[in-house]
Fold each of these.
Amino acid sequence: MPKFVVIGGGAIGLNAAYQLARMQAGKVTLLEKGQVGDGSSSRAGGIITGLLWSETGVLARMISLRLYQELSEDLEQYGYRFQNVGCLNLFDPASWAEREELLPLYDRLEFGYEILDAVQIRRRWPDLTPEADLIGLHDALGGYSEPHEYVPALARRCRDLGVEIRENARVSGLQIENGRVAGVQTAMGVLEADVVVCTVHAWTAAFMERCGVRLPIKSFVHQRYVSSKLQERAAIPAINANPYGGYIRPARLGTTDFRILAGGETEDREEERVDDPAFHMLVLSAPRRVRSLLSENLTPLVPKLAATRWETEQVGLISFSLDSEPVLGTLPQLPGLVVGAAFHSGGLAYSPVAGLLLAELAAGETPSVDISSFSPDRFTKEDTDAYLATTVVQADAFRRRH
Ligand SMILES: Cc1cc2nc3c(=O)[nH]c(=O)nc-3n(C[C@H](O)[C@H](O)[C@H](O)COP(=O)(O)OP(=O)(O)OC[C@H]3O[C@@H](n4cnc5c(N)ncnc54)[C@H](O)[C@@H]3O)c2cc1C
């Protein structure tokens, strides 16, 4: 029976393990250096949209949205449901011009969307008061995935499907035999595998460099907040509110506890280098001013925010590749390894399809989407070295939201 080792217990690794188990591909072991959900996945905003900027991205997200519906059914007994409230992507007239050019792509791929003006937006969601000149691109299939429900439910489902999840099991390197990956090295010794799937997110660049491969990936601190309890549910969808400097969505702590979640970048902050294999996201913090700035910026869009305060904060990392597209695939110099990383601020949205694609590659099947534009091998050595030699601030990295 083939043996698969998945490194990393976040949404991407769990979905890869889940898909391998569903395919009955072989024995699946997932190794997590700390606890499942220790990384960005449990800190995410969880906003999901299919309306991306590349053909591969849109095709992949179409599968993710379908899989989220299926996960809703499969994980219901574990307390998870995808919240299909729709996703509204907001644009000011200047940024709309660029997005409008993508509409023929959405039409060709038959991805449904609606273009709404401010009056239509107010009419549909009475709790929203957008500026008169804003344009909304609505993705009716989008919504959000509540991370504190999604990650534990996936882990429990994986275990029930026979995946062995080992926590406190850091992988220190790859075991190479006869020119191919034959397992992973851990403090407990070598764990043999026919294929290793690496999903260690912000740790990827340093991990791969120790294995002799440089990948042009950088990470940035990112934060999101959940408000105090609302009197009643906010009538809003998930919103990528770029003109307001952030994103916002309804949040639930239970079936009757309704809140608002919001987040955004810290423009002037330098990239975060994750060189220490033992790095933990708990050491990250966000400047206090982010909270008040988010309230100031977003309250004109969602006046209900004025009656709340931010009650909880989550700080994590988002990772971008040199061209801002994900890094997903195999590497010719390391046969037996499949990598999935750099999902910008959309790793939760990508997670079901990323898991499927990683599992298909690991099992030797043809991936459901042509992912050549995500290939880890697409960067030249010169571009990679030059990119890694620079230090970038968040404002100069790509702004690719969810
Ligand atoms: C504040 C915030 C808001 C976000 N909002 C959204 C959003 O609205 N929508 C969206 O789609 N995405 C969002 N994201 C992005 C999303 O969270 C990430 O893209 C996604 O979680 C990446 O998943 P992952 O499984 O690759 O990484 P992680 O969840 O970080 O998992 C990687 C795991 O690997 C483990 N690991 C590392 N090294 C090793 C090793 N050597 N051995 C074993 N285990 C190891 C880590 O401990 C970690 O648990 C947000 C991120 C942040 C920080």
Amino acid sequence: MPVSGEFPGLGMPSFDATSSLDSLGPVEMESPTQDLDGDGILDTFTTTNSDSMSVWTDSDLDGYADQLSVVENDGDYAAWEYHRNPDGTGEWRQTDQGTVGE
Ligand SMILES: [Ca+2]
Ligand SMILES: [Ca+2]
């Protein structure tokens, strides 16, 4: 499980395009900084590390991320969506993976 951050913006889990998110639960949106869909409400933030950039989006604005896209510096990318099950559990499912430009 990801550890929620003691330091704002530094507590987000970091992944690359080949990560498995099977054991990752709901991810709280700490402080969105971008408005991805242009409706005037901040819904997205981006984290970067030395190898990749991760884009987290909370499309239904419930405070938890629903979509994650990771793009590595070498062009590999992957995307996941969080699916909520009727029993209240949920899981991240990979929706896309590939290499930019191929
Ligand atoms: Ca928005
Ligand atoms: Ca959400």
